[in-house]
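Write out a record, focusing on structure:
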Amino acid sequence: MFVDGHKKFGGWNQETKERRRRVSDMFYNVYHGIGGDEAFMQWASKEENRKDFYKMLSKQLPTEVSLSGSNDPTPINIYLPAIAAKL
């Protein structure tokens, strides 16, 4: 239960958030420094890199999707880890 003025428990501390942001910025800068989207497309287009590309892509896909219709509020959960693992 939340109590006003109570110390926060759990979650990421500020130093960890800042470190993750710096690492993310570093990868962004390197990505663009080595050619960005164009270079990545050329790399992924090579036959010997396709398997690695699809592995990276599968890690970006959600492993759980929740859907609900407008007339039925019951969610439908679809779990995809088995499908993603095969990519």
About this structure: The chain has a mean pLDDT of 79. The first helix runs from residue 14 to 33. The two ends are 42 Å apart (CA to CA).
